[in-house]
Amino acid sequence: MARSMSPAALRLGMNWWPPFRFAGIRVLHIADDWSGARVRLRLGRLNRNYFGTHFGGSLFSMTDPFWALLVLSSLGPGYIVWDKSSEIDFVSPGRGDVFADFKLTPDRLEEIRAATADGAKALPWFTCTVVAADGTVVAEVRKQLYVRRKPARPHAPAG
After folding, report:
1. Looking at residue 12, which CATH number applies to its domain?
2. How far apart are the C-alpha atoms of 41 and 54, rounded to whole Å?
3. What angle do CA 135, 138, 139 make, to 5 degrees?
4. Which of 64, 89, 124, 147 is least enclosed by beta carbons within 10 angstroms?
């Protein structure tokens, strides 16, 4: 999906996607070079838990697809990228708008390219911090990706 559209088109599509839209999740920015993204989660009656704070599932959802999308789009069509594992640590209650920033550096991409150059898989971990508008840490989210180069297709004999 991400490879066939621009970051702006993906951002627009994700903002209309029902699981994000109804959870109060808004993609504020995806960098033109796929090197980063910023996401906001508003507290509303559809994502508030019993205690009046953000539902943990919504906090996780706001961070879920971004590392895989950024890595896949940055590496290009010669790679397979999947989510492999995730962890979330709830640090403090989220009571208002919360934000998550994703920054994918050229060094991380080079590490992945080097690790997969011979066809091996790479299992890199990425971290994202969910923060309140005042900078208070609400959650720490870790994602592990599965990354591998696609096997080369054998060429058909000329006919």
Report:
1. 3.10.129.10
2. 9
3. 125
4. 89
On whether residue 115 sits in a domain, the answer given is: no
Distance of alpha carbon 139 from alpha carbon 5, whole angstroms: 30
pTM of the model: 0.89
Closest alpha carbon to 81 in 111, 124, 110, 39: 124
Strand partners, 102: 37
CA 7/CA 76 separation, integer angstroms: 14
Query: How confident is the model over 55-110, as pLDDT tens digits?
Result: 899 999 999 999 999 999 999 899 999 999 999 999 999 999 999 999 999 999 99
Residue 23 belongs to a domain: yes
- Note whether residue 31 is domain-resident: yes
132-to-24, 59, 140, 155 alpha-carbon distances in Å: 15, 11, 12, 53
With respect to residue 41, please indicate whether it lies within any of the assigned structural domains.
yes
The residues, any chain, with a CB within 8 Å of residue 118's CB and separated by 6 or more, are none
pLDDT band per the 50, 70, 90 thresholds, residue 2: very low
Task: Answer whether 41's CB lies under 8 Å from 21's CB.
Answer: no
Domain span at residue 13? Answer: 2-76+93-106+127-141
